Automatic annotation (TrEMBL):
A Pfam family hit: AHSA1
Domain of life of the source: Bacteria
Record family assignment: Belongs to the AHA1 family.
Record's protein name: Uncharacterized conserved protein YndB, AHSA1/START domain
Domain Activator of Hsp90 ATPase homologue 1/2-like C-terminal: 13-133
């Protein structure tokens, strides 16, 4: 498995970024890689051993899947580490500096899709998060 790191610098406070990243009512609004997809449901038990789930579906109803995992580490306003249900590891860090919050996400790739496609998909979701957080 290869590791890929993506990042975004968000013009917002760390408190707001953390809230929008971890609250299901916000996750369903930003968690998509393209306009023809959406997240219809999100659950988040933000604690070590807690589980999360985002239901991602094509808007035309042709395909959908649950993005699920279990938290390995939760350091409020600093770091989240989790293991996806397929055993891939993900680490997300949050750093506030000069009125912006940098979100850095490192994930292990899967073998079904090209690495470049995975990187662009995860980056698109992070970019949507940035736009949503800066607008609301």
């Amino acid at each position: 498995m290869e590791q890929v790191t993506i990042k975004a610098s968000i013009k917002s406070s760390l408190n707001k970024v953390w809230d929008y990243w971890t609250s299901p009512e916000h996750i369903v609004k930003w968690n998509t890689a393209s306009e023809d997809w959406h997240t219809t449901k999100a659950d988040n038990d933000l604690r070590v051993g807690g589980k999360f789930m985002s239901r991602m579906e094509a808007k035309d109803g042709s395909f959908g899947f649950d993005f699920e995992g279990t938290y390995d580490e939760v350091v409020p306003h600093k770091r989240i580490a989790y293991t996806l249900d397929d055993n891939r590891k993900v680490v997300v860090t949050f750093t506030e500096k000069e009125g912006k919050t940098e979100v850095v996400e490192t994930f292990e790739t899967e073998t079904e899709n090209p690495v470049a496609m995975q990187r662009s998909g995860w980056q698109a979701i992070l970019d949507n998060f940035k736009v949503y957080t800066e607008k609301h």
